[in-house]
Design a protein that fits this description.
The complex is a heterodimer of chains A (about 400) and B (about 525). With about 400 residues, chain A is of the alpha/beta class. In chain A, strands 5-11-10-1-9-7-8 form a 7-stranded mixed sheet, sandwiched between helices. A 3-stranded antiparallel sheet of chain A has the order 2-4-3, with no helix packed on it. In chain A, strand 3 and strand 4 form a beta hairpin. Chain B has 4 domains: about 45 residues, no CATH class; about 120 residues, no CATH class; about 90 residues, no CATH class; about 150 residues, no CATH class. Chain B is mainly α and about 525 residues long. Chain B has 25 helices and 6 strands. In chain B, the strands form 3 sheets. In chain B, strands 1-2 form a two-stranded antiparallel sheet. The two termini of chain B are about 20 Å apart. The relative contact order of chain B is 0.10. Classes of the chains: A alpha/beta (about 400), B mainly alpha (about 525). Chains A and B meet through helix 4, strand 8, helix 6 and helix 7 of A and helix 12, helix 13, helix 21, helix 22 and helix 24 of B.
Chain lengths: ~400, ~525
């Protein structure tokens, strides 16, 4: 074990030297009481270049004469180079408080531009490897399974689990909607858990866990007056905030936010993309207010399967690209700084002259989140055939 | 104990056929299939034109939007005259009219699945609906095209030629809009840009506006969305021998395939088309200056005839019709039949149904029902009359599978892996009890459904209901749970509660582990 660990750290340091990322310095320890990771997946390939905007780069405006934004559009500068889209205004105070860290040019080494494949590779954290069918978050949960742990370690408030939570570890999918009466669970109590294989097992778990879930959600202490927008994402985050405040052992939450595939009608300062950014930003800002004392222990990771083409496509939209971006927010994040390697928008810096390069492998971000949030050191081959380099974006 | 190698009995074969080529048996249907002969039933299902379908025809009569063209729909429902200063009442009525085509379509999808005698056609229709996914979530103009899409593309070709299905999908406005091909075009030439500039300058007198318009026009161009999904999802499958260069070449070939404004019909516009030869999958598709649409048609033919497509489609059908991990021999048999028949879906489905794996005990009850399959099979098994499917449609939304609302182009999966998450069964249990106990508005189990319990001791009702709803039998633990639930119900309540016993037991059977599988 010691050898593995040393090797891991050495490799990490070597990689860090190449990539400009800081290695993991101190041994990892569990310090805080109840860290939680909220994994928000922006499905469809969100256009990160219009979230974190290189607002002073003439090449940006040249590539995006229609949907591009500049200072005259009220972009919100974070530094000399990058500005937030105005619709992300609610996130700016979090950046100023050093709680938000955007990571640029994240993505996959695999060149696929297919949503399905890219999401698959990313959520199983095994680019190009169709054989891995256990999500990266599920692998973490399994690796850290311990007797007596909360049954609510992993929850998704939707009808299907995101793939990152699929695997041997039984994560819980609770569709939001009308509250299920507990007597439905009573009725089926004796039907599940006997013979009947996977269906029976799944039902047994559903009953046991939903009972407690509803009890806890109902008894959750009230949070701060947080102004959540009127959106499905916000409602789900609100439930999660209550659950986290209740201290029920929730460790990982999977949340899908669909509809980012803006080939047409994406828009610039207004339009579909801007509306969705506003919902995202306002929901997250309200969530962090609502979390109260748990805000510092709760890490939110916003990710998407790939970035989009640097040039707009002339239908007021963008096509599937490569390098994208992620947002790290809250728990342990050393924010107020943009992370990742930016190589500009010159044609020679782009992949095939059209897409941002991938300068931070998504597995590095995932490993950093697990380390930064939970103090988890991934065992060898946690990411098949890959040793991640940790980002300096976390306080530990 | 039945051994894995033991062949299915004739009765089991009937149940299996009704679970794969139909949305489960209706009351008495297993016996009817047995009387006809299982093989004959299967054969007739794969030739649906010969099956009378009066219930569905009655249904269509009440849903005029389904038979209308997009232009008619627009005129009839969307462009209704708007009174000046409409009252709230009038405004609601206008909105209701606007929603009417969608309401009629969604209702028809559910009703047909429940009621149609052409069940195999419904199963294949559902498969292609997800294979060639389009969705209301795209918003905007797609609304008016989906009834026509469902009728003239998906349903019309569901058991016909795949090439025809592919070609129909490629030029239907619903697909052209959903995957953005309608706006994909070649970049403008300098001469065209100059002409745009002159026109705007003349109209507005502003050099600045002219410059802006020219810049916008300069940016318009190729959109790869359709080209990529055409190969990845519709024909070859992901990672099946095409490259990014192929995607670009196919996208170029399909430039100009668009939707004529106002009329809402397919048109090919040569002025949007990228001219010249296209190199696709190692072949040269010669550019056709006279009829550029020929290039796209040639690519569709090339893809439809490809062995990669044959295997991809065969696997898809085998997953649906056999089990989630179909044996390779069955897939190969399907692919061979597809190629031999030049893409006949009926031949492909027939080969898969004829494969030994289809009738193997390993495949019997091996599929976990999707939410749609669960809901439809419950409605069929109870003979429920669905007068207003809206509450049922809402339940489907809650289970994660609302009709024509799957946003990603992959469509809904039909494997257990995608649906068997802990937690989601609760939504099915709720639906099971609500349906059986009469709490789903617009969907009623007929009062005589329980008539056959007369003369049977209430303590034995559970057994009758289990036999009726779970013809393939159920485990001892389910039997014990039903028996106990019945006894407890009779003991606990006042005597008048007995009337509620049968519906309660019915709900429990529908929510049992066995009813989640097919």
């Amino acid at each position: 074990m010691t050898t593995t660990r040393r090797e891991f750290l050495q490799t990490t340091a070597a990689l860090a030297a190449c990539t400009g990322l800081a290695p993991l310095a101190a041994p990892l320890r569990r310090e805080r009481a109840a860290p939680a990771l909220v994994a928000v997946y922006l499905r469809g390939g969100a256009d990160f270049l219009n979230m974190l905007i290189p607002y002073r780069d003439p090449a940006y405006r040249a590539a995006r004469p229609g949907i591009g934004l500049g200072e005259e559009d009220g972009v919100l500068p974070l530094d000399d180079q990058f500005a937030l889209h105005p619709a992300l205004a609610a996130l700016r105070p979090l950046y100023q408080d050093k709680r938000l860290a955007p990571v640029i040019c994240t993505g996959s080494p695999h060149p696929t531009r297919s949503h399905f494949e890219a999401q698959d590779f990313m959520e199983y954290a095994a680019p190009g490897n169709h054989g891995v069918r256990e999500g990266w978050i599920s692998r973490y949960l399994r690796a850290t399974a311990r007797p007596g742990a909360s049954e609510f370690r992993a929850v998704a408030l939707q009808a299907n689990l995101p793939r990152a939570l699929r695997g041997e570890f039984p994560a819980l999918a609770v569709p939001e909607g009308k509250r299920r009466r507990n007597d439905v669970l009573e009725q089926f109590d004796s039907f599940y858990g006997g013979e009947g294989g996977a269906v029976s097992e799944s039902g047994r778990r559903t009953i046991d866990i939903l009972r407690r879930f509803h009890e806890i959600a109902a008894a959750a202490p009230a949070g701060k007056e947080a102004a959540y927008p009127d959106a499905d994402l916000a409602r789900r985050l609100k439930t999660i905030a209550g659950f986290i405040r209740a201290g029920a052992g929730l460790e990982v939450v999977g949340l899908d936010y669909d509809g980012w595939d803006h080939h047409a009608g994406q828009g610039g300062i207004g339009g579909r993309h801007a509306e969705m950014l506003r919902t995202l930003a306002e929901s997250l800002a309200a969530f962090y207010r609502d979390l109260g004392p748990h805000a510092d222990a709760t890490l939110t990771l916003c990710m998407t399967e790939f970035g989009r083409t640097v040039r707009e496509n002339g239908n007021d939209g963008t096509d599937h690209g490569r390098g994208g971006g992620m947002l790290l927010l809250g728990g342990g994040v050393r924010g107020g700084k943009v992370y990742g390697d930016w190589r500009g928008l010159e044609a020679k810096a782009l992949i095939e002259g059209r897409d941002l390069p991938v300068t931070t492998d998504f597995r590095d971000v995932f490993a950093s989140c697990l380390a930064g949030c939970f103090g988890f050191e991934p065992p060898r081959d946690f990411f098949p055939d890959y040793t991640p380099a940790l980002l300096a974006a976390f306080r530990r | 104990m039945v051994r894995a190698a033991e062949p299915l009995t004739e009765r089991e074969r009937a149940i299996h056929a009704l679970s794969r080529l139909a949305y489960g048996p209706r009351p008495g249907e297993v016996e009817r299939v047995l009387a006809l002969g299982v093989d004959r039933w299967v054969e007739s299902q794969l030739a649906p034109a010969g099956i009378e379908d009066a219930a569905v025809e009655r249904l269509l009569a009440g849903a005029p939007a389904l038979a209308m063209t997009p232009a008619q729909l627009r005129a009839e429902f969307l462009e209704a005259e708007r009174p000046e200063n409409p009252t709230p009442e009038q405004r609601r009525e206008l909105q209701r009219r606007k929603n009417e085509p969608r309401v009629q379509l969604l209702r028809s999808v559910l009703q047909r699945a429940v009621l149609s005698e052409r069940q195999a056609l419904e199963i294949l229709t559902d498969l292609w609906r997800n294979h060639f996914n389009v969705s209301y979530t795209k918003g905007g103009p797609i609304e008016v095209f989906l009834p026509d899409w469902d009728r003239s593309v998906i349903r019309a070709h569901a058991l016909g030629g795949f090439g025809a299905l592919l070609a129909a999908s490629a030029q239907h406005p619903a697909m052209l809009i959903y995957l953005d091909n309608a706006v994909s075009r070649r970049p403008a030439t300098p001469a065209e840009l100059a002409a745009i500039g002159r026109r705007v300058q003349r109209r507005t007198g502003s050099a600045e506006r002219a410059e802006e318009e020219m810049e916008l026009a300069r940016q318009k161009g190729l959109n790869e969305n359709y080209a990529r999904e055409l190969m990845e999802l519709h024909t070859l499958g992901a990672d099946n021998g095409y490259s990014q260069d192929d995607v670009v070449a196919v996208a170029e070939a399909f430039t100009g395939w668009t939707v004529r404004r106002n009329e809402g019909v397919f048109e090919f516009r040569n002025d949007m088309h990228v001219p010249g030869d296209k190199r696709v999958l190692g072949r040269v598709i010669p550019g056709d200056a006279a009829d550029g649409a020929r290039e796209g048609r040639a690519i569709l033919e090339l893809l439809a005839a490809s062995a990669g497509t044959a295997r991809f489609l065969a696997r898809k059908l085998a997953c649906r019709l056999i089990r989630d991990d179909p044996p390779p021999e069955a897939v190969e048999a399907g692919a061979a039949a597809y190629l031999e028949s030049q893409g006949d879906i009926r031949a492909l489905a027939g080969a898969i149904v004829a494969s030994p794996a289809f009738w193997a005990r390993d495949s019997f009850r091996a599929k976990f029902k999707t939410p749609f399959e669960f809901v439809v099979s419950a409605l069929r098994a109870t003979g429920a009359a669905v007068e207003n499917p809206d509450a049922v449609l809402a339940a489907l939304r809650e289970m994660g599978q609302p009709i024509y609302l799957c946003d990603p182009p992959t469509g809904y999966a039909d494997t257990a892996e995608a649906w068997l998450d802990p937690g989601v069964l609760a939504a099915r249990w709720q639906f099971a009890l609500d349906l059986a106990e009469g709490r789903i508005r617009g969907a009623r189990v007929p009062p005589d459904f329980h008539a056959d319990l007369q003369g049977v001791a209430p303590t034995d009702w559970w057994r009758r209901l289990a036999e009726k709803l779970l013809p393939a039998g159920c485990s001892e633990s389910t039997q014990a749970a039903l028996r106990a639930a019945g006894a407890e119900f009779l003991d606990a309540g006042p005597p008048g509660r007995r009337r509620q016993l049968a519906p309660r037991l019915l709900g429990l059977v529908l929510g049992s582990p066995e009813f989640q599988q097919q």
